[in-house]
Write a structure and sequence with these properties.
The protein is an alpha/beta fold and 308 residues long. It contains 12 helices and 12 strands. It folds into 3 domains: 63 residues, Arc Repressor Mutant, subunit A, CATH 1.10.10.10; 106 residues, D-Maltodextrin-Binding Protein, domain 2 (3-Layer(aba) Sandwich); 101 residues, Periplasmic binding protein-like II (D-Maltodextrin-Binding Protein, domain 2, 3-Layer(aba) Sandwich). A 5-stranded mixed beta sheet has the order 4-3-5-12-6, sandwiched between helices. A hairpin with a 2-residue loop joins strand 1 and strand 2. Helix 1 crosses helix 3, helix 2 crosses helix 3 and helix 6 crosses helix 12. The radius of gyration is 22 Å and the shape is globular.
Length: 308
């Protein structure tokens, strides 16, 4: 039986606290007071009869019951948003929007071609493309803020309630400016790499563990000068103007390499190769514009990474 005490504000507040993992941050984003957020969560817990959050040191974390409710709450808000969009479409003759999360490598290489194939279809749909870390994008997908994520396959425990369709596989490369000292072959890359600034994937990124394993396996236990970043614009500008080494997914720098602006250090990174594809909510049926966009993404990926 549906508890009539559970309102839209309860779901909205719960999802924002779950996403931010902080009452304070959720209150700021929702533009309401912290006590109001706390009161709303307590009302929800009273209606459900279980705790959905628990203390974790100075912060909070979602409980197992909260994890279960999260999947259904996200689905409910997604269905509600789709209903509102459908009504808006009837009233204002506007197509249902499609919100896509894409890794920087996908935004750089695949999405431009996919959009060039999608726009001639004239669906009239509004497309929103968000770039960020894989984990952040998947969380936004889970709570209904995104309809689709094009990125790396997450760990099994992060894929509950989600489905994944493999498009292609991609490796990590060590990119440097043309003419970098490590390109002359006089010194092993791993012997000399610690002498230069290193741009690393952030600790929350999927590729970070693969990069760390590769470095350790080749005797590099410490890198004195590290900068963690997911910014393509910063990485590209900094590496081209310095002797920094950028450890990044190949697709992000493929264009610069093809133009001779950047080069790849002679490092065997085959062990960092991982699947990239479409991730969706398993309980949501794609709209017609989303299905068309997914097809153009598949076509673009196949053109760029032809299957052999």
């Amino acid at each position: 039986m549906i508890d009539s005490r559970v309102k839209f504000r309860h779901l909205h507040t719960f999802l924002e606290v779950a996403r931010q993992k902080s009452v304070v941050k959720a209150a700021s984003i929702l533009n309401i007071s912290q006590p109001a957020v706390t009161k709303t969560i307590r009302e929800l817990e009273e209606a459900l009869g279980v705790a959905v959050f628990e203390r974790d040191g100075r912060g909070i974390r979602i409980t197992r019951y909260g994890e279960v409710f999260l999947r259904h709450a996200g689905a409910s808000l997604t269905a509600l948003r789709q209903g509102i969009d459908s009504v808006s479409q009837e009233i204002f003759d506007a197509a249902v929007p499609v919100r896509v999360g894409a890794l920087p490598t996908v935004s750089t290489r695949v999405m431009p071609r996919a959009m060039s194939l999608f726009l001639p279809e004239k669906t009239g749909s509004r497309i929103k493309i968000v770039t960020g870390e894989n984990a952040v994008l998947l969380e936004q997908l889970r709570v209904g803020d995104l309809d689709l994520v094009v990125g790396r396959l997450a760990a099994p425990e992060k894929m509950t309630g989600l489905s994944f369709e493999h498009l292609y596989s991609e490796r990590v490369v060590f990119a440097v400016r043309a003419g970098h000292p490590l390109l002359d072959g006089r010194q092993s890359v791993f012997e000399g790499i610690a002498s230069y600034p290193i741009l690393m994937p952030t600790r929350g990124s999927i590729i970070r563990p693969f990069v760390e394993q590769l470095l350790i396996a080749n005797g590099v236990a410490n890198l004195p000068t590290q900068v963690e970043t997911v910014s393509h614009a910063f990485g590209r500008a900094f590496v081209r103007s310095s002797d920094a080494v950028w450890i990044i997914s190949e697709g992000v720098v493929a264009g610069d390499i093809a133009e001779g602006l950047l080069a790849v250090l002679p490092v065997d990174t085959s062990e960092t190769k991982g699947p990239v594809g479409l991730t969706l909510r398993a309980d949501v049926t794609p709209s017609a514009p989303q299905a068309i966009l997914m097809q153009t993404i598949r076509q673009a990926a196949n053109e760029i990474f032809p299957k052999r």
